[in-house]
Design brief:
Number of helices: 16
Shape: globular
Strand order of the largest sheet: 2-1-3-4
Number of strands: 8
Order of helices and strands: EHEHHHEHEHHHHHEHEHHHEHEH
Largest sheet: 4 strands, parallel
CATH class of the largest domain: Alpha Beta
Radius of gyration: 20 Å
Bound molecules: iron/sulfur cluster
Length: 334
């Protein structure tokens, strides 16, 4: 890090405000899952008293905040997670400064404008406003759009690379300039012609998985992620101004807008099947009851609990699902 204060975030918030204040945003989820031993971070939180039957993401975030000596963090609520809200209360009680960013349920654009100013006041700092930073990041977001399009148009982008860039868009890995450079370099050498391989185009929906090798595993069994719902939302695919882009970011709002997005994107991208990831002990598991019947392509609900590599039961379920989809495709081609 370059000496800037790190502002932790338990889920995506308008990072433009953090950057405008001269601070570095840190998506605590990404820091947790990309650490050398994420399961040790979960254990550390449990030793501090966090319940075993609590989502691993929350426990991982807790340990990252403690280990990285993060003084201030932003917790979106409502709009993300009731468990993280309580985590914020716990950390505030322990002396951390916690800001609740409220994604508005109604009058989204007007509500977001107010919330972003409130966040800017809390962050302090002066100079460039969040709106100006949004404009400065337009080129970077355009590059992300190019990668997303390349992934589904050519099916030649490896699932791991696609997923890593998309998920990193929540905080630009804390360094937008370095992130943009690495994305541009990647795009410069990426194949632009359609892949000749017969990989099965798959969508990954739901909360980001704690299964650390899911993209590679899918590749090994003949499937490729060409639509990654929530990480793609981190790229802010729609909206021309700061407030409108965050008003169209589907994840913090109702499930209906997420279903609409998934339906249209899976149709356009010719997706063969959806892997809907759910996290053990997560309230969002109930969303699959609404999502599955609303989609007209096969959906596999895949659950994960502790962070780490895929286990044999999860692998078996994925293999059966991909085999079924390949057989279906063969039947349709005859
Ligand atoms: S997986 Fe669910 S419970 Fe866990 S942090 Fe995400 S929204 Fe919250």
């Amino acid at each position: 890090m370059d000496g800037r204060e790190i502002i932790g975030m338990t889920a995506m918030i308008p990072v433009e405000a953090v950057l405008a204040a001269g601070c570095s945003p840190m998506d605590l989820n990404n820091t947790f899952i990309s650490s050398s031993d994420p399961d040790a971070l979960v254990e550390q939180a449990e030793l501090d008293g966090l319940p075993r039957n609590l989502c691993s993401w929350v426990k991982g975030i807790y340990s990252v905040v403690k280990n990285r000596h993060i003084r201030r963090l932003v917790v979106p609520f409502p709009g993300d997670c009731s468990n993280c809200h309580t985590l914020g209360e716990l950390l505030a009680d322990q002396g951390f400064e916690v800001f609740e960013f409220r994604y508005p349920a109604l009058n989204r654009v007007a509500g977001l404008k107010k919330e972003i100013s409130r966040l800017e006041c809390w962050l302090g700092g002066s100079g460039t406003g969040a709106g100006t930073i949004f404009e400065q990041l337009a080129g970077l977001r355009l590059e992300l759009k190019k990668l997303d399009r390349l992934a589904w148009k050519t099916r030649s982008v490896h699932s791991r690379d696609y997923f890593a860039f998309m998920i990193g868009a929540s905080d630009f890995n804390s360094d937008p300039a370095a992130y943009e450079l690495s994305l541009k370099n990647y795009l410069a050498s990426a194949p632009t012609a359609p892949s000749q391989s017969t990989v099965l185009p798959i969508a990954l929906t739901g909360v980001p998985p704690v299964i650390t090798d899911l993209p590679e595993t899918l590749e090994k069994i003949g499937a490729r992620i060409v639509f990654s719902e929530v990480p793609r939302q981190f790229t802010l695919p729609r909206g021309k101004s700061l407030a409108s882009a965050y008003s169209l970011y589907t994840y913090p709002y109702d499930i209906a807008s997420r279903i609409k997005d998934i339906r249209s994107e899976t149709k356009q991208r010719g997706i063969a099947g959806i892997i809907h990831y759910v996290q053990s002990f997560c309230h969002r598991q109930m969303e699959s009851l609404l999502l599955k019947p609303a989609l007209d392509i096969p959906v596999l609900i895949l659950e994960g609990d502790r962070p780490g590599k895929i286990n044999s039961q999860q692998l078996m379920r994925l293999e059966s699902f991909v085999t079924l989809l390949l057989e279906k495709k063969q039947r349709e081609n005859h």
